[in-house]
């Protein structure tokens, strides 16, 4: 190949020595001169392969506890000289700088050290200086030099060495250089984030895992998920998650987080909103009553439970066509039943915390905010009417208010006996949301007498309490805060409806 180059010399300096042996063996087979740093040198010597200590090149020992070992013109001159530039060649001859054709580096594990909870001094020592400089230098000079910037490139590189007798093409060297700048930019992003601790409002994220999806929201849109699903779920069965599945899974997991300390709770979601939700004494009952909320919308839905799914519940679920089933665990027999549908996606959710910040693109930038962490408790509800909710109404108000927070605005949730009767979702007016909810509840033959109503934001006028009161709703939870709150309160007082304020608006757009 015209642009192939034979590797004649290499500098190897790796923190983690695992996986290095096959490369060393290939390089030895090709009579490559190997330069190396302390620990790596010892590892190579133990393999019985000749290695030149980098100190022989630099005529300096490793100093300052290893902070300076490869940072030397003889090393960087050997990497950065342009093989086709006469001036560079004249200078490296003058200063007796040997050429270095290959650099293999594995950086100090900065991210892992931070995650381990190590103290600041230990973390600072894990900021690699020499290694990152070697990576940048070799990647910059990819026309002449091969850079292997992490263990992730080892197997590809060994294959090239074997197949191409120790030669690499320009295209291969450029591809490794791209990987190198990915490694170095990811590394520096994490160092920045450690130093910044959110003080400077800069958007700097680096996510290494990504998954190309079948398509985006629609088949003509390309879709990619940047993240690591494996950190949150064990995927036990089923087809690839789609873009829309992922949005629903996100909505489902965040909704169920709200019920993690409650009794057995089951939710069914469609288009990011719950169409069924119930808390019962068993997960099977919870599933049945969640499904009863809207058995029509449940078709093709995303199902989530807050407790282990047993075989009987799985048998019931199996009668429904659903895309995804999520639970903290499944009985073996339940899995067997659920796996009977080839495409059904089964996710076992791991007990890990989700990130505290949310991002979304808008216009030519990114919006960032804290997650809505406020989970209103019934003990904190402020009663605003002469009639106060009964104990069971309080339970229902808390239940409905948890759901309202996870439903698209404007929304109204109607609930009774810890079961979602119906909601109005994503409406441009609150009255529309209520009318939609009433219509839906009635269409599934729910009796709204003694139901409760939750609203994600205040009522600007008393119209909602009037309409709901006429249907039999007799307890209401809302944030409050309208200049016309009194009108809604007065209506409730005149009609024996209990109303409580949370003080917290829960818009979700
Ligand atoms: N300071 C330097 O000149 C330097 N040169 C290479 N390193 C790092 O030293 C590590 C390898 O050290 P050893 O071969 O001694 O185990 C690698 O992670 C490499 O990225 C250095 N250490 C940190 O900056």
TrEMBL record:
SMART domains: AICARFT_IMPCHas, MGS. It comes from the Bacteria. Signal peptide: none annotated. Gene3D superfamilies: 3.40.140.20, Methylglyoxal synthase-like domain. InterPro entries: AICAR_Tfase_dup_dom_sf (IPR024051), Cytidine_deaminase-like (IPR016193), MGS-like_dom (IPR011607), MGS-like_dom_sf (IPR036914), PurH-like (IPR002695). Keywords: Hydrolase, Multifunctional enzyme, Purine biosynthesis, Transferase. Pathway: Purine metabolism; IMP biosynthesis via de novo pathway; 5-formamido-1-(5-phospho-D-ribosyl)imidazole-4-carboxamide from 5-amino-1-(5-phospho-D-ribosyl)imidazole-4-carboxamide (10-formyl THF route): step 1/1; Purine metabolism; IMP biosynthesis via de novo pathway; IMP from 5-formamido-1-(5-phospho-D-ribosyl)imidazole-4-carboxamide: step 1/1. Residues 1-149 form the MGS-like domain. It catalyses: (6R)-10-formyltetrahydrofolate + 5-amino-1-(5-phospho-beta-D-ribosyl)imidazole-4-carboxamide = 5-formamido-1-(5-phospho-D-ribosyl)imidazole-4-carboxamide + (6S)-5,6,7,8-tetrahydrofolate; IMP + H2O = 5-formamido-1-(5-phospho-D-ribosyl)imidazole-4-carboxamide. Its EC number is 2.1.2.3, 3.5.4.10. The keyword Transferase applies. Pfam families: AICARFT_IMPCHas (PF01808), MGS (PF02142). NCBIfam families: PRK00881.1. The IMP cyclohydrolase activity resides in the N-terminal region. Belongs to the PurH family. This is Bifunctional purine biosynthesis protein PurH. It comes from Wandonia haliotis. The lineage of its organism: Bacteria, Pseudomonadati, Bacteroidota, Flavobacteriia, Flavobacteriales.
């Amino acid at each position: 190949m015209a642009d192939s180059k034979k590797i004649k010399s290499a500098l190897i300096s790796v923190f983690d020595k695992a996986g290095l042996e096959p490369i060393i063996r290939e390089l030895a087979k090709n009579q490559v001169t190997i330069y190396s740093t302390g620990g790596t040198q010892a590892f190579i010597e133990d393999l019985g392969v000749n290695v030149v200590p980098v100190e022989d090149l630099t005529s300096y020992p490793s100093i300052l506890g290893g902070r300076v070992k490869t940072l030397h013109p003889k090393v960087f001159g050997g990497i950065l000289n342009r093989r086709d530039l006469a001036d560079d060649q004249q200078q490296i001859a003058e200063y007796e700088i040997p050429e270095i054709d290959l650099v293999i580096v594995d950086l100090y594990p900065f991210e892992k050290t931070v995650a381990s909870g190590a103290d600041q001094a230990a973390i600072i020592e894990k900021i690699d200086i020499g290694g990152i400089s070697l990576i940048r230098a070799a990647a910059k000079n990819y026309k002449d030099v091969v850079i292997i910037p992490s263990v992730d490139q080892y197997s590809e590189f060994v294959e090239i060495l074997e197949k191409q007798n120790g030669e690499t093409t320009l295209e291969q060297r450029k591809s490794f250089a791209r990987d190198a700048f990915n490694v170095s930019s990811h590394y520096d992003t994490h160092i920045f984030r450690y130093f910044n601790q959110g003080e400077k409002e800069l958007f700097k994220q680096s996510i290494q895992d990504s998954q190309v999806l079948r398509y985006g929201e629609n088949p003509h849109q390309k879709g990619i998920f940047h993240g690591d699903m494996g950190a949150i779920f064990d995927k036990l069965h089923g087809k690839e998650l789609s873009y829309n599945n992922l949005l629903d899974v996100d909505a489902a997991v965040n909704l169920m987080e709200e019920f993690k300390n409650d009794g057995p709770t089951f939710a069914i979601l469609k288009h990011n909103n719950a169409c069924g939700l119930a808390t019962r004494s068993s997960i099977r009952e919870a599933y049945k009553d969640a499904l009863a909320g809207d058995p029509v919308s449940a078709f093709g839905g995303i199902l989530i439970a807050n407790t282990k799914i047993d075989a009987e519940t799985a048998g019931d679920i199996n009668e429904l066509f659903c895309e995804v089933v999520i639970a903290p665990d499944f009985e073996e027999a339940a899995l067997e039943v659920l796996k009977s549908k080839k495409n059904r996606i089964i996710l076992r959710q791991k007990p890990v915390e989700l990130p505290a910040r949310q991002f979304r693109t808008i216009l030519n930038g990114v919006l960032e905010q804290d997650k809505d962490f406020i989970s209103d408790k019934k003990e904190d509800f402020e009663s605003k009417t002469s009639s106060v909710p009964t104990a069971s109404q309080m339970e229902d108000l808390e239940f409905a208010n948890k759901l309202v927070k996870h439903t698209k605005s404007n929304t109204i949730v109607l609930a009774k006996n810890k079961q979602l009767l119906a909601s109005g979702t994503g409406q441009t007016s609150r009255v529309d949301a209520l009318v939609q909810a009433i219509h839906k509840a009635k269409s599934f033959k729910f009796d709204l007498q003694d139901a409760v109503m939750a609203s994600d934001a205040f009522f600007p006028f008393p119209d909602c309490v009037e309409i709901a009161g006429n249907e039999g709703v007799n307890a209401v939870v809302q944030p409050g805060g309208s200049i016309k709150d009194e009108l809604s309160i007065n209506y409730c007082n005149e009609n024996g409806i209990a109303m409580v304020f949370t003080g917290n608006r829960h818009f979700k757009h």
